[in-house]
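Reopening: tRNA pseudouridine synthase B still failing for me.
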Amino acid sequence: MTQQHTTPDGLVIVDKPSGFTSHDVVAKMRGIARTRRVGHAGTLDPMATGVLVLGVERATKLLGHLALTEKEYLGTVRLGQSTLTDDAEGEITASADASAITREAVEAGVAALTGDIMQVPSKVSAIKINGVRSYKRARDGEEFDIPARPVTVSSFALHDVRDAVAENGTPVLDLVVSVVCSSGTYIRALARDLGAGLGVGGHLTALRRTRVGPYRIDGARTLEQLQKELTVLPVAEAAAAAFPRWDLDERRTRLALNGVRLEMPGEYAGAGPVAVFDPTGRFVALVEEQKGKAKSLAVFG
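Support: Ran it again with your exact input. Result attached.
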């Protein structure tokens, strides 16, 4: 990563604070970077903390193409209480004594929610049902169902089981878990379904996103740190980290920048977006193979 003192042009990996929406973070970054051209790749619930990928200036053109398909989380699940939102933000809707639940039973419940599963997102989510956000329907008191969707939970690990007592006196269990999953997976829905499967209900009490695609929490900066020193992953480095690389000579670089659809080597067939670099190592375009030719997705040269 490099530090830049002018208006930056690249990705900013933010360690989002709890209580902020992803849009709040974008608004903050617009002030820090002194530009309106800021966007984010994939939202993070207000309660959650951790990795949020932002694009600044020309890097906003990369955001829609980043293959941020795999995400990693560390969280705490409370067994013994269900909430309206499936997390600690919502009011408690049911309580049950969870003290008799064994670690073995929890491990079996976790195993049942690992792999390729069908998941029903939380009703208080941003998913649109017939064009209307699910959370708006829920707030308006509507009765509705969200269809289950296929998601992949490639890892769901149980690290600790702690006995606790909820504020209303119910004996509960607090589980420390980590999850690696596909984009679109709701961790609070995993918490809800784990509790439901064990017959005592459950909800998410804490969540930290530790990785989004190739971007990890150890490379993220808090808003306070960014206010003091704006740390940017230059657009060329961001592209090289996220996409297959295709190096062109000067002649073919000129042709590509003039809109000529170049023949692409077979190795890029079906690879999705490919980052194109000129002989000096400058990132000039994002292309995609289409019938053997390079179709331009975004030009940076």
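The chain has a mean pLDDT of 90. If you still see a failure, please send the error message rather than a screenshot.
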